[in-house]
Amino acid sequence: MESGMQKLVVVSNRLPAALKKEQGRWTVNPGSGGLVTAMAPVLKNRGGTWIGWSGASDPDVDVDSLLADFSKEAGYELCTVPLTKEEVDGYYFGFSNEIIWPLFHDLQTRCRFYPKYWRAYLDVNFKFAEVVARKSDQDDYIWIQDYHLMHQAFFLKSMGVKRNIGFFLHIPFPTPDIFMKLPWRWKLIQALIEYDLVGFQTIQDRRNFVGCLQRLMPEARVEGRGAVVTVHAGNRQFRLGAFPISIDYNQFSDLAKRPDVARKAFELKEALRHRKIILGVDRLDYTKGIPERIRSIQTLLRRYPDLKGRMNFVQIAVPSREEVGEYKDLRTEIEQLVGRVNGEFSFPGWVPVHYHYRNLPYDELVAYYAAADIGLVTPLRDGMNLVAKEYCACNNSEDGVLVLSEFAGAAAQLQKHAYLVNPYDMDGIAKGIHRAFHWSKEERSLHMSKLREQVRKNNIFWWVDSFLQAGIAKTLGDFPEVET
Ligand code: ADQ
């Protein structure tokens, strides 16, 4: 640990290592996402702790001893918040996934505003805050991740615990008209203004938050311009910022260059007889617009019959929230749609849609990215969307095209060089794909190289640095501009 640096305490719903029961035995599986990759060196250098739920609700598991070895190797402490099955049901599956997730993605009709969910959310947030209070001291910097834990600053203050504390929202923040539907809107806003810094993915999310705040507290005012501003609301003064999250660009680009991965990419192209590959990669979630995307492929083939036999659409769907009824229904809907489109167009030797419902190893995922001619990323709404950035990072040959939803946070940064589409507009997506097929090599390479430069510069390490700088700096200096 480097001396003189403020210790960092990261708090998220799940720890970066998950406990899983496999064949009757509990094992620790390290997480591999971008957040873990970016935070690990920072936690190691500054010294730090990551607090979260381990994924085990079984009272007989000795979680602490299971995590001790992992902590030693990682170089920072892992600390678990034990949760019962009932708590997980109410706070995670209930409040987080059935209220905040759909509401903040503008899908209010999917919300179940049950008061018992709200109570469970508060109870679990209080439990987390008790652990944060115990595991940190006044000089530490506390960084709370995401919508499951919006009440941390509020509860710490109510306990009389003083901390410098920041919050980052990974999902969008809705407009006032949508946010005002939340029965607990006032309490949530009151909780969020207790942070010293609240970070969003885009400037638009930040504007939406200010809009909601001013509906509820008309006297609230914003001072400053640029990526980080100061808000005065009642007796509170705090910072708001836009920090678009990103990926470890080099890790993806280098992996795509590795000879075995490049060979895999070539084998994929060969298996598909060097037809154009259109690729979709998502967690199986209703916000990702997968059914709409498959319908747009159907439209594409109906409108442009010359493409029959000349392209393949590959959709990789990563299993997610499988125990939830709505997600099971979505899976069925997608499978039926894939069947319908393949039934309508296939002929001997050609099946237009290839659908994979499984967790691919990373090198295989990267091989798909590297092989694809078009990255088709069309969420109905998304905080950022890392798949769009991963696709660009892996496209070392710079001859791919990114077709991107205008409602993904990533569009704010990538709009100049991606082909932007409305994910609800099947004709528009079909037209976009058709146009992208006809871009010249020069055009593709010009746009892709610009996209890659953007992702390489504003990578995940830049994201961590800029948030911490905004959270820890006493005065607001010059913050890198964020594209709106
Ligand atoms: P997600 O909704 O999960 O994240 P996204 O940003 O697209 O969405 O990230 C998905 C991640 O899953 C990617 O990093 C991808 O590589 C990974 N993945 C995809 N297929 C995989 C596979 N087969 N095996 C393993 N991993 C796979 C939320 C918000 C987003 C926001 C992120 C980060 O909803 O808007 O971008 O957090 O803030």
From TrEMBL:
InterPro entries: Glyco_trans_20. PANTHER family: BCDNA.GH08860, TREHALOSE-6-PHOSPHATE SYNTHASE. Belongs to the glycosyltransferase 20 family. This is Trehalose-6-phosphate synthase. It comes from Pseudodesulfovibrio nedwellii.
